[in-house]
Fold:
Amino acid sequence: MDTTRRATAIAGALVIVGMIAGMLSVVPALEEPRYLALISAHESQVIVGAFFQFIMIPAYVGFALYLYPALRAENEALSLGFLGFRLIAAAFHFIGVILLPLFLVLGQAFVQADALGASHLQALGELLRTARDLVNHVALIISLSLGDLLLFYLLYRSKLVPRWLSGWGLIGAGSAMVASFLVLFRLTDVVTPLYLAINAPLALQSLVLAIWLITRGFDPK
Structure:
């Protein structure tokens, strides 16, 4: 197996690692109406969620780094832009990791507070939860999607993978950005059928792309 073939296989594996980590980073307790009262009893959920969101950082950046040499040979500007957006997304991932333990601090204070203090903490908790949604589902997704648009445009031009797969990725990245703007303008919430449906094309395309990179790699022609 040559260097490029090995790199694409590892990149495909990292996509799957990132997808699994993403599913395991969900903290169900934060979606409950009384999440501040419940969060202390679900401390393990928060810790596990933060751990797996952190795992997503090397998975997402590693994907770009392993593909970068082959992509740079086709178009240096587009490949560098793709890598740059992945690094920006990694920074937002790290912010998301840092925000999660703050809910534990708020939850512990909430269960010990009087009625007035609990009201203030509830407002602060809503602000923190909104900030986390904006980081994870707006800033992070938009930066990833912008990078993906560069990636799939480069792949479409170079035919390193079939054009139907690259075109699918372009459509998926565009729809993911639409979903993020809907969240930004409060036209939908994160955990809704609409949001999940709009993001489904990119999620499915990512899985197909990962399998393609692992089993076939880039077209050497």
Notes: The two ends are 16 Å apart (CA to CA). Residues 115-158 form the longest helix (44 residues).
